[in-house]
Amino acid sequence: MKKWNKLLAAALPLLALAGTFAPGAQAAGQTIPVTGDIEVSADYDWTRFAGDNITLNVYNWGLYISDGSDDSVDVLSAFEDLTGIRVNYTTFDSNESLYAKMKSGGATYDVIFPSDYMVGRMAAEGMLAPLDFTNIPNFSQIGQEYLGWDFDPDNTYSVPYTWGTTGLIYNTTMVEEPPTSWSALWDVQYANNVLMFNNSRDAYAIAAKKLGYSLNPASIEEVETVMQELKNQKSVVQAYVMDEIFDKMEGGEAALAPYYAGDALTMIADNPDLAFVHPSEGVNFFVDSMCIPANSKNKEAAELFINYMCEPSVGLANCDYIGYSTPITAVWEQLDDDLKYSEIAYPGEDVMGKAEVFTTLPEEINAALDSQWSEMKSYEEGGSGWMVVVLLVLAVLVSCFNIWRKLSKKARDDY
Q: Given a cut of 90, is residue 396 above it in pLDDT?
């Protein structure tokens, strides 16, 4: 199949010269086959950079694209075959890592995938280029409900890629009762079996919801209160993780962890002992977007890439593989029913009615959040070593009591 793709890619410029794939040469709605799974609109000039020796530097979240592994579709290889543009694809593990890398000036990227609040922050700091939507006609494929958010009200800088929610993933063999609250992540019976987000915004949001606050802090004092709650949690936390969560939860190395719904679906598929719940206090609803940094050297080619990522067949391949929810209307309609109607991927009003979106914070609150997160991560209570031991002993005692209670009940029933 790959050999056929390369032959097709070599032929595309010649066919374009003959008029077969030139813009407007075919009626709108007709498509060009690229692979057995990928087809793109024929009413777009995909080959206009084929001879320009362009390489796009694309910076995305880890495990966040259909890359050819596990029998998935390799959408990047198909893009290269279609356009003649090479892709240098690298990954980050949090919005904060992305921001730090961009802010340092240590690398130049052409397409990046920040989340909502980070789009707003980077746009405000002049780090993003306004998009030319004449080069992104597939923007019309995006559902209206995913456009016009406060972080980019006119979608000047961003095109939605996926969306999702946060929640609790847990191991049913290690957690006796399905959790319903974020407070389970503070429960001493799970000491050293709790994982926690290793980024300030997501971790803050969970503690804030547990305390009854908005996940968007309104003051520095509120940040201090919530960060104290995260300090109170430290004694039960095994590790602060991002992509490491896959190995830990799939391998049965922890009982509970907060994470993104799309990744939860992947983990559950690999380990059926895992389950997922949206805690009752409310969750984060997020939109991850495609943006072009202000210092991109290949802006028009980057816009072509974004347009390609919004092709329904490409969006379907991505969402089918990574499990995240799609903002592309035509993609949702093509999903298998088990994903289309999944309460994890597409939760109902009971969840979405209480969900909150991260907003771009004032600079002084951002600074407080960053500094206090660093302080929390390095925080050690006096005598915290013995505190962990005490909590573990308490957890063992609780477990023994539960076993004794069950045995006693069984003895009474037998009698």
A: no
